[in-house]
Amino acid sequence: MTQDVLLLDGGLGQELIRRSPDPAHHHWSLQVMLEEPDLVSEVHRDFCRAGAQVACLNTYAVTRARLARGEGLAPLATHLDRARELAQKGIEAAHCPDTALISSLPPLVASYRADTQLPFEQMVDEYSELIALQIDAVDGFIAETIPSIAEAKAVLTAAAQANTRIMLGLTVTDDNGLLLRSGESLSETLEAITPWDPLAVVINCSKPEAVSQALPVLAASGRPFGAYANGFTAIDALEPGGVVDVLEARNDLNPDQYALFAAQWLDMGATIIGGCCEVGPAHISALHRLINDRGLTTAGWPAFTSG
Could you tell me the sign of the dihedral formed by the alpha carbons of 118, 124, 126, 127, in that order? Predict the structure, then answer.
């Protein structure tokens, strides 16, 4: 049977940092939408042209905890609306009208750090707000870089209450792909989310080597699964409220090298591939070639969600 593959885009934030002449700061990804909006649209355009079937909105930093760290920032809904508008502009510039608008549901306080998470009911309330503000304006949601069982349960609970299914992205440790960043086991996490019905479970913003270790566990679950890895040497230098430009990019993960990892994931049965931080349009183009070279077919977001 022919394997249908959903090709995601790459790391929007790191690509923006690479292209902008201005220094990054902890609210930079929000201000860039006001000060350099064309840059955001251009990155979306280039990912679409590379073959990505989704445009993941610039909403990773749009949470109440992150906005509270700054002064004079626009309301939550304003940032969400702006991110959607700029993604749509990029899709139109790429002449790829079938590209899906997908909003990121990030860790609510800090990336990779389960020790900063909010009380469970507060997490559910804040994820519910993010979903309610966007559900009529986007094609779907990806919960990204979720580091713990509790936060996974919270975002899935919020989605279920909104009567929508989401893709769940978990992040695993750099040196052990069988453990979430919280230290909880990946297999126990999959058991813990059994009451919910995510569209798929993916591993994201983790080293490709750790992803390859994690995917057999996802494959054994029987759910649709996949991955989009990062290109960092390590994530230890990033503190809550910090900016990912403090992290170092690998020099051994060019587009062809990244595609070799993705080929492994496809061999394991993955039906979703893409890229996270430090994975740019050239990498996504290499994944698109990989899919074509294998004679696989691509399944856009609507076909994927109806499966």
Answer: positive
* Mean pLDDT along residues 197-208: 96
Residue 237's pLDDT band, with cuts at 50, 70 and 90, is very low
How far is residue 11 CA from its own chain's centroid?
8
For 72-91, write each residue's pLDDT tens digit: 677 899 999 999 999 999 99
Q: Are 86 and 44 in contact (CB under 8 A)?
A: yes
CB count, 10 Å around CB of 295?
A: 8
Domain boundary assignment for the chain: 4-306
Burial of 192 (0-12, 13-18, 19+ CB in 10 A): middle
Specify the pTM: 0.93
Q: How is domain 4-306 classified at the CATH fold level? A: TIM Barrel (3.20.20)
Joined tokens for residue 245:
């430009």
With pLDDT > 90 as the criterion, what percentage of the chain qualifies? Answer: 74
Q: How far apart are CA 196 and CA 162, in angstroms?
A: 13
Nearest C-alpha neighbor of 272 from the set 233, 220, 218: 218
Token pair of 63 as six digits: 């949470």
